UniProtKB/TrEMBL annotation:
Organism name: Candidatus Anaerobiospirillum pullistercoris
Active-site residues, Swiss-Prot/TrEMBL: 278 (proton donor/acceptor)
Protein name, per record: N-acetylglucosamine-6-phosphate deacetylase
Annotated binding of substrate, by residue: 145, 223-224, 231, 255, 311-313
UniProt cross-references to SUPFAM superfamilies, sorted A to Z: Composite domain of metallo-dependent hydrolases (SSF51338), Metallo-dependent hydrolases (SSF51556)
Gene it is expressed from: nagA
Annotated EC: 3.5.1.25
Length: 388
């Protein structure tokens, strides 16, 4: 298969017109950018062609923090749930997924981890590339939509039991660094998992110590953490100060005001920001009553809330968050694509297969226009959607 005449999103985060992508089986075989318009790419590469003139071709998105889709949650711990989630995500352009646990019992967490370990990717589903362990090592004062009943002090052995159950699929571990034994846990696990400052009341000083110990990631920036105050700027400033620290952000138009989103990108720079959806089981379905971490959630439009009014994840997928970040919040299109593809793939160490369009990587691509209308989705070398 040869995609020709595309405007290709390149590995150095720009667009290259008149580009061609050759796909063989489930991999990218060759990429030619800024090709001579007089040359026939089919002759040059010996392939039948599909013309993508006037369209953008970008890498499949990578969501490293979300909980569910279409009425299912990762914590169900069943093949049926993962099948439904992966199928919805793939049709939405999210072609590599790293679903998140919730603060629940160790039994429930290890069940979900074991289910992910044994899961076999399906032909019409996004690839499961990892697990985000969000909880139970959170602050009881900043649980957000996590279940306070199951908050647990940071515990190396607890993590390792979950990691063993997962077959080493856990890529991220959320942790509140001010909690007892948190800094020691971060330091002990720094070579085993990416620790992420999350659901925390940490001061600037404590957050700085956590980053020095190995916590080089911030979970859903602004949400469930202290704000950026001028005398105690908290974990946001601590993360910004550390050039090696990265930050997730939810751009669904509900969680964070657009001015604060733009400020975060100025603080961290596009090279350190990661777009996430934090979506829960309602995404892809109508308004109504749902569940997250064993707690009832009411969904209306893009707003998902607990009975207390606390925002409970999002009802927006990552592609729509990326679209909102660009078209409604004013971030450059090159930036939002990078932050939904390359940056998350780098963070969870799946750049060998995802994140950029280069030879030998998975042929998982999105064909779209500049208004973010999806025209085609190529999933591991096969068309899942093709409307051009």
């Amino acid at each position: 298969m040869l995609l020709t005449n595309a405007t290709l999103y390149t590995k150095d985060f720009r667009f290259a017109p008149n580009s061609h992508i050759c796909v063989k089986d489930d991999r990218i075989a060759a990429v030619v950018t800024n090709a001579d318009a007089t040359e026939d790419p089919a002759t040059a590469l010996g392939e039948e062609t599909i013309d993508a003139h006037g369209l953008l071709v970008i890498p499949g998105l990578v969501d490293l923090h979300f909980h569910g889709s279409v009425g299912h949650d990762f914590m169900e711990g069943t093949e049926e749930a993962l099948d439904a989630i992966a199928k919805y995500q793939a049709k939405s352009g999210i072609l590599a997924i790293c679903p998140a646990t919730m603060t629940m019992s160790e039994e429930d967490i290890t069940k979900a981890c074991a289910n992910a370990r044994d899961y076999q990717n399906k032909d019409d589903g996004a690839e499961l590339v990892g697990i985000n362990m969000e909880g139970p090592f959170v602050s009881p004062k900043k649980v957000g939509a996590q279940n306070p009943k199951f908050v647990h002090a940071p515990d190396v052995d607890f993590f390792r039991r979950c990691q063993k159950a997962s077959g080493n699929k856990i890529k991220l571990m959320a942790i509140a660094p001010e909690e007892p034994n948190a800094l020691e846990t971060i330091a002990a696990l720094k070579d085993e998992v990416l620790s992420s400052i999350a659901h925390t009341c940490a001061s600037y000083d404590i957050a700085t110590k956590a980053i020095a110990a190995g916590a080089t990631h911030l979970t859903h920036l602004y949400n469930a953490m202290p704000g950026l105050a001028h005398r105690d700027p908290g974990p946001i400033a601590a993360g910004s100060d550390a050039a090696w620290c990265e930050a997730e952000i939810i751009c669904d138009g509900v969680h964070i005001q657009p001015g604060a989103v733009r400020a975060a990108f100025r603080l961290f720079g596009p090279e350190r920001m990661i777009l996430i959806s934090d979506s829960m089981m309602a995404v892809g379905l109508d308004d109504g009553e749902y569940e997250l971490g064993g707690q009832p959630v009411h969904v209306k439009g893009r707003l998902a809330t607990l009975a207390s009014g606390t925002i409970a994840g999002s009802a927006t997928n990552l592609f729509d968050c990326m679209k909102t970040a660009c078209l409604q919040m004013g971030l450059p299109i090159e930036t939002v694509i990078r932050c939904a593809t390359y940056n998350p793939a780098r963070s969870i160490k799946v750049l060998e297969d995802y994140g950029t369009i280069e030879p030998n990587k998975k042929a998982s691509l999105i064909v779209m226009d500049r208004e973010f209308n999806i025209k085609g989705i190529l999933l591991r070398g096969k068309w899942l959607v093709k409307n051009f």
